[in-house]
Write a structure and sequence with these properties.
The protein has helices spanning 2-14, 56-62, 80-89, 99-110, 123-131, 142-148, 156-163, and strands at residues 28-36, 43-51, 66-73. With 164 residues, it is α+β, with helices and mostly antiparallel strands. β1 (28-36) and β2 form a beta hairpin.
């Protein structure tokens, strides 16, 4: 029994347990939606940002196009350079992660902050970003937004203050 306990304890020491992480429930997504232009009756394509909590039928209705609709998730993939840097920094690659998510995690690793914040951005802030056509990661923190975007977008400072 002592022999097996030594083997298993060495394996546990050699492989530290990775934190269990999943993608945030509330995210900003970009869709390519095709429908009919009401004026010309010709097919038209629009790219729209929306929240992951929104029904696709609601998003289609906001485009101003007429049915029949087709929609396709159109998110920029993680680049090779990001993958290499993530590997060097020890940042895990998750299924469903996009370029903005990778950028946020790389920035957290470089700034020596926790990779995954305890909570994602609140919906009012995500909606503000969607309304201003900004495709950003949900893994950003409120302090990241204060550091980078408050000066560029009036109204964001008050919204962040309300969400704290």
């Amino acid at each position: 029994m002592g022999f097996f306990s030594r083997i298993f304890s060495r394996q546990a020491e050699a492989e530290p347990a990775a934190p269990i992480v999943k993608l945030p429930n509330d995210r900003i997504l970009r869709y390519k939606i095709t429908g009919k232009n009401p004026g010309t009756r010709r097919r038209n394509t629009r790219r729209v940002l929306c929240g992951s909590w929104e029904a696709i039928s609601d998003v289609e209705a906001h485009t101003g196009l007429l049915p029949p609709f087709t929609h396709e998730l159109e998110m920029p993939e993680v680049t090779e350079a990001q993958l290499e840097l993530m590997k060097k920094l020890g940042v895990p690659m998750l299924d469903g992660m996009y370029r903005a998510d990778a950028s946020a995690l790389i920035q957290h690793a470089l700034d020596e902050k926790p990779l995954f914040p305890d909570r994602g951005l609140p919906r009012p802030i995500l909606q503000f970003l969607i309304d201003n056509k900004l495709l950003l990661s949900s893994w950003l923190t409120l302090s990241d937004l204060e550091d980078e975007l408050v000066e560029s977008f009036p109204g964001l400072r008050a919204l962040i203050k309300n969400c704290k």
